[in-house]
Amino acid sequence: DIQMTQSPSSLSASVGDRVTVTCRTSQTIMTYLNWYQQIPGKAPKLLIYAASNLQSGVPSRFSGSGSETDFTLTISDLQPEDFATYYCQQSYDSPFTFGPGTKVDIK
Amino acid sequence: EVQLVESGEGLVQPGGSLRLSCAASGVTFRDYALHWVRQAPGKGLEFVSAITSNGDTTYYADSVKGRVTISRDNSKSTLYLQMGSLRVEDSAVYYCAVGQWLGRFDHWGQGTLVTVSS
Fold it and tell me: What is the mean pLDDT of chain B?
């Protein structure tokens, strides 16, 4: 199975900040990497697919980059509704594993 | 608007069985790969199972392999997860998700809670 790690596991930030979350995989997955946002008590929501493609309806302050084994999610100009947990997930091979999550909370 | 509605929530004893359903609307059901993802209380997301758009191929996490069966009825736009030999560690909110590609979760249901306890 492909193992996923994320860093940091949590971070505190202020509205307007630029936030970066990193995801690393145990083997190359090309760009088969997706990012999800989960607000407590809600279902996850797809933000970015194939490493850098913004899902329809997702604000442009979200962006993704990377390939092979190293990936990044960036939120520019953090908004109050962005305080949530973010998960990376590989769709290269089953089982389609998730990272452990990064919780972004208010400083 | 895509809507996915899971049902089958319940409390079941260890060793018991349960069937989850996920009814879809607002999407051309037969064109999508379908998935189940679960989340234990306070924990992260875990892939459970997937099925291709035509239903020919299925995938399972090692943690559930041999105990669960995923299936779909394209005529009813419904996804199923038949679960057996349930364990306490299977307790979680189970989400169904549809994706344009296998392994990508474009849209999610609201989740249904499975509790395995004696």
Answer: 97
The arithmetic mean of pLDDT across residues A15-42, rounded, is 97
Per-residue pLDDT at A43: 98
pLDDT at B118 (0 to 100)? 95
Mean pLDDT (chain A) is 97
Count how many residues are written for chain B: 118
Q: Do B46 and A1 touch (CB under 8 A)?
A: no
Looking at chain A from residue 40 to 69, which residues have their Cβ under 8 Å from any Cβ of chain B?
43-46, 49, 55
Q: Write the DSSP string, B13-72.
A: -TT--EEEEEEEESS-GGGSEEEEEEE-TT--EEEEEEE-TTS--EEE-TTTTTTEEEEE
The one-letter code for the residue type at A93 is D
Mean pLDDT across A76-94: 96
B106 touching chain A per CB within 8 A: yes
**Own/partner pairs for A36-41, CB < 8 Å, 24+ apart?**
A36/A86, A36/A87, A36/A88, A36/A89, A36/B45, A36/B105, A37/A82, A37/A84, A37/A85, A37/A86, A38/A84, A38/A85, A38/A86, A38/A87, A38/A101, A38/B45, A39/A84, A40/A84, A40/A85
